[in-house]
Amino acid sequence: MSSLPVPVLRNSPETFTLKEILDSYDPDTFEKATTLFRKPPYQRTLKKPVEWCKALVNSILCGKSIGSIHLSKWVTHFLDEDGQPSSDEYYNMEDGQTRMDACMRFRMGEFDSAWGPFTDPEIAVRFNSYRVATVLIQKAHNRVKDCIYFRALNENFSDLQESTSLTASDRYLSQKACVEHNFEGSSLVNITLELARTQLSEYMKEYCAVRSLDRDTLSKRLAYMIAIVSGSLDPALANLSYYSHVPYLNNTPDDTSWEDKKTEIVATLKQVFRAIRLALEIKPRVKSEHISAYCNLPNYLGPMLTDRSVYPEESTETFKRRWAMCINDCRTAKEDGDKDWLRQNVYKNLADGVIRNCKKEDLESKMIAVRNYYQNLL
């Protein structure tokens, strides 16, 4: 007997002209958009270089295929201002937003095609009438709840990328809770964002170059943020690999909830960040110095989190002084033009791969090297 899963999604071929799409496309406000064509909250804000965009537009004007886009169809029902039943039908851009972004930039005059600008009437007619092959995704049947449909589209988003590969941060962003669609998302992602907004906000901004939680920042820094939050409980997770975190997106490695571990996470990370703060108190920051360099995972934060994990009984003061000395020795050497001091002195007996990587055993080796180097100096 077949054990095939019950489908949630179905798809069918469709076409839209570029004019139909671009005349009613809002790529910037995501779920808050009111246009016919929109971007779902888990989509990215990618922008290709102008030369790439020009090549795409030139292909369109030559009638070449630019590949299909993927749209999901949504219908929401509500009561209008007169209390009468009404509905809103729209399409979310599941795949193809980079190409549509390039097309919008051409229409707005950011660059010209090989034959001239969009304002040329002949070019505008040909461009606007170009038909875009579309895979239209819909609910498999009307009984599928919106939250189930949204989750399936979310998973589908991670699978269908055909051009620019998803980064770890992109994948995590697709697991962010979405109240509008009753999507709970990943507990690990949600806790990380909550702590970055609240108890760890000051440290994230000052030391980790996470100065805001807007979509652009999260698309670059979320994987790093999750690495240090999860790594505070288990150094084996202090890395940027999305797939190493997949088993723990909703529960910690010891199978408890991330919510229950918030206090422990905050306590550990505050100890680590206060070691960096101590370094700056001893040796004040100089103009244009980037302290976030001393918060990278392979050389500093990863070994520091490992140190706290392996030696939890050691006094916080001893831990802070050790790492403050290490950071300041590196800063002083860098001021003298030696950017490789840590590798050549503290990590000198370690292989390049160990220094570069964030596997648990690599972080332990670097942690031991730091403890050995400074054991007689504390």
List the helices and strands and how they pair.
Blueprint: E1 9-17, H1 18-22, E2 37-38, H2 50-61, E3 69-79, E4 85-95, H3 97-107, H4 121-129, E5 131-139, H5 146-159, H6 168-173, H7 187-197, H8 201-207, H9 215-231, H10 242-245, H11 262-282, H12 297-310, H13 316-335, H14 341-346, H15 352-356, H16 360-374
Parallel strand pairs: 2-4, 3-5
Antiparallel strand pairs: 1-5, 3-4
Radius of gyration: 25 Å
Distance between the termini: 69 Å
Overall average residue pLDDT: 92
User: What composes the largest sheet?
Assistant: 5 strands, mixed
Shape, principal axes of CA atoms: globular
Provide an overview of this structure:
The structure is a single chain. This protein is an alpha/beta fold and 378 residues long. The chain folds into two domains: 9-165, no CATH class; 187-374, no CATH class. Helices cover 47% and strands 11% of the residues. The protein has 16 helices and five strands. The chain has a five-stranded mixed β-sheet with strand order 1-5-3-4-2. Helix 2 packs across helix 3 (97-107), helix 11 (262-282) crosses helix 13 and helix 12 crosses helix 16 (360-374). The chain is globular, with a radius of gyration of 25 Å. The termini are far apart. The mean pLDDT is 92.
